[in-house]
Amino acid sequence: ELHLAESGGALVQPGASLRLSCAASGFTFSSYAMTWVRQGPGKGLEWVSSIKSGGSTDYADSVKGRFTISRDDINSIVSLQMDGLKPEDTAIYYCNLPQRDYWGRGTQVTVSS
């Protein structure tokens, strides 16, 4: 059974850092691309970052240079290191397995002074 479980969300001040993690199970993790998608208050879904099975990465312009996606194929974890957080980064962050259209439940990130 597929399962994605996000963790690491918190309330932080502008400029702070957070690391989100997504623990995956129920599929051959190393064979699949993984993505992070977010939904801000009153907004639609916004793609944030992707990492392919070979490790190549891609980022939305809004987070490029501040966020870093990585994967641990041994432990089936995809992470999102977020530095220089801004109030506009406030959102629920979802881990997504795009090839199966499977989503985790999300983790809340709030950036506020």
Taking the sheet with the most strands, its summary is: 7 strands, mixed
Q: In percent terms, what proportion of residues is strand?
A: over 45%
Q: List the helices and strands in order.
A: EEEEEEEEEEE
Structural class: mainly beta
- Total helices: the number is 0
Report on the structure:
By secondary structure, the protein is mainly beta. It has no helices and 11 strands. Strands 2, 4, 5, 6, 9, 10 and 11 form a 7-stranded mixed β-sheet that branches. A 4-stranded antiparallel β-sheet has the order 1-3-8-7, with no helix packed on it. The N and C termini lie far apart (40 Å).
Compact overview of the structure:
With about 110 residues, the chain is mostly beta strands. It contains no helices and 11 strands. The chain has strands spanning about 5, 10, 20-25, 35-40, 45-50, 55-60, 65-70, 75-80, 90-95, 100-105, 105-110.
List the helices and strands and how they pair.
Elements: E1 3-7, E2 11-12, E3 18-25, E4 34-39, E5 45-51, E6 57-59, E7 67-72, E8 77-82, E9 91-97, E10 102-103, E11 107-111
Parallel strand pairs: 2-11
Antiparallel strand pairs: 1-3, 3-8, 4-5, 4-9, 5-6, 7-8, 9-10, 9-11
Features:
113 residues, mainly beta, 4-stranded antiparallel β-sheet
